[in-house]
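Q: Structure for this?
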Amino acid sequence: MPKWFSPAVLVCGLMFVVSPFVIANAPYESTMGLVQKIFYYHMPSAWMFLTASLICGVASARFLATGTARYDRTAWASAEMAVLFGLLTLVTGPLWARRAWGTWWVWDARITSSLVGWMIAWAYLILRRYGGPGSEKLAAGLALFGMANVPFIYVSVNYWRTIHPATTVVPTLPFSMGFPLLFCLTAFLMLFVLLMKLRVRVALEQSRLDDIYLALDEQRL
Amino acid sequence: MTTLIRMAAAVLIVTAGSASIRAREQAVPPPALPPLHLSIPSVAPGQVARERMLLLARAQPQQQEEFVPLDQLPPQERLPAAPLLVGAYAFVLLMLFGYLVSVSRRLTAIQREVDRLDADLKHNGRG
């Protein structure tokens, strides 16, 4: 285990333990009340999901252009992050919507495109797992579509008719609501970096393991 | 001549007969047909539109006439926020913790395997 692992886990763990208390001190939103506090975990999850999809796309593009294995490992790790944080977004959103909108799910542009982005990340992982030799380039091509979907997800609430809050809500938050959001966002970002580094390390060690197996085979021959 | 007089008389009789039949037809209305009893009800065009409007009106929520306190709502219409909030937080924390444990276990297993194979490789190289 790398040296930075334990302190990083400790800091992230502390932030996540403290976060419910910070959120509890935030004022209630006027129309939704208590359930609106899901927002403080829902939005950072969604941002991490979009960030992971972007990193996956950029790393895949660089891998396709240069063929460097490092970018491929980064793309694979970020695809896993996209699946994880996308799942958190797509589960916490309906829990909030059930109380706020009276329904679990609405097929509007934001939610549907998020689901599509999440399924693209899943498709990437399935392709890498079962695609066989050469699947890394196919998966990289798929990741480009996942990246192209990100701006669409972000602006969809401003251009299409939807009941999902617009992107203009966050900048207008008062400090009492903005601070807990910033706190949670920092905690999620730190955890994202920690998980990402750890997952890239797994991919690196896996490639080392493959090299060793090849060397052993050559020795036997 | 006689033939001509007979033909003129025949024309007069036929003309007078047809004129009297036409006059009778105009005076007496035709007998009414019995009403049709089909399985599909015959409705006026305006009636369809009226029924659609009624259906739309019924689909609209009832206008609120008084405020009802939350505790007077029937139990199936009450939806407390706390279980949803706690559920969302618990799900996020469990998933993140689970993934962290899963990745660190994968890393530990691979590193152990790498160390073992590294030692084997060095041992075989010496031998």
